[in-house]
């Protein structure tokens, strides 16, 4: 197997969280936090990947619950391995930003973390989706955390979760983003509602594109999902628009999620979201017992990789939007209920890309 030059490791530091978002697929209150021993084994095992660069995405639950000393140790371990091997480590963190302090912001700035903030606009009933344990909305606390990041010269990207069956008004959403200076945005269709979403999601994305084109005030807002329809994978690569979750990037070959207990999973964090049989089958190994080399040589890894290739081959032959999406999000259809056909998954991703692609071709 030819090893990729760049790997992404999604470290699920904990599945515990200080919020109780109604749509969350990952949070498990009271979940333990990754130990210092597992952290050490994780960083040490990463050298088995024989990569030129490794990007570690610190994820949860809420990853800041691990505390600053945890990440200070991680940086120290990375620095030592970089000195020994030449591997370049980069770090990202996906946080709800409600626990950030000036000390956190300074640390993230000093160590060049890419920061993604999960925040939902206070439009309609969206804000109450993302709420604290006692029930109050978390939007304002997240915006305060974003302000601290900006004071430390960290410019975060934001991720908003939307119901694809009932998305907000496109103009109202863009106005809210513009009001708060949020111009690097990813819009995630709620995972539990991504299968067979109907036309509301594709119409919403089409309206977003129209509203951005019609307003100079909003033209600086970059929404990842709209880029997918306007460019093909080669163009996105040339423009530097790839990240670990862009279609066209061989995600299941270059990404592994690591659970807080050190388990190594096939693909991203969505394959490690719970302890059910559905996600347990994607467990490949453990950072302390064989590490990544053993995991990537396992029969389970080969089996899942072959399933991905079969699906993408089918999509390449049957879908006109394939050059934009490369078969879409593999987690959508690999984790889809058995009642949904696995031959041609009809997801929010597919519907949105196909509709946008037609609009872009017509204009």
Q: What structural category do the secondary elements indicate?
A: alpha/beta
Could you please say which CATH topology applies here?
TIM Barrel
CATH superfamily: Aldolase class I
Give helix and strand order, one letter per element, not per position: EHEHEHEHEHEHEHHHEEHEHHHHH
How do the strands line up in the largest sheet? 7-6-5-4-3-2-1-8-9-10
Q: What oligomeric state do the depicted chains represent?
A: single chain
Give the class-level CATH name. Alpha Beta
Morphology call: globular
Percent in helix: 25-40%
CATH architecture: Alpha-Beta Barrel
Number of helices: 15
Terminal Cα span: 43 Å
Q: Which residue ranges are poorly predicted, with pLDDT under 50 across at least 5 consecutive positions?
A: 238-244
Radius of gyration: 20 Å
Total number of domains: 1
> If you average the pLDDT, what whole number results?
83
Please count the beta strands (DSSP E, at least 2 residues each): 10
Largest sheet: 10 strands, mixed
Strand fraction band?
A: 5-15%
Polypeptide structure, described:
This protein has a single domain, classed as TIM Barrel (Alpha-Beta Barrel). The radius of gyration is 20 Å and the shape is globular. It has 363 residues and is α/β, with parallel strands linked by helices. The protein has a ten-stranded mixed sheet. Mean pLDDT is 83; it is low at 238-244. The termini are far apart. It has helices at residues 36-45, 68-85, 102-110, 139-151, 170-179, 200-213, 224-230, 233-238, 251-254, 277-280, 291-296, 299-318, 322-325, 330-334, 348-362; strands spanning 6-12, 53-59, 88-95, 114-118, 157-162, 184-189, 222-223, 255-258, 263-266, 283-286.
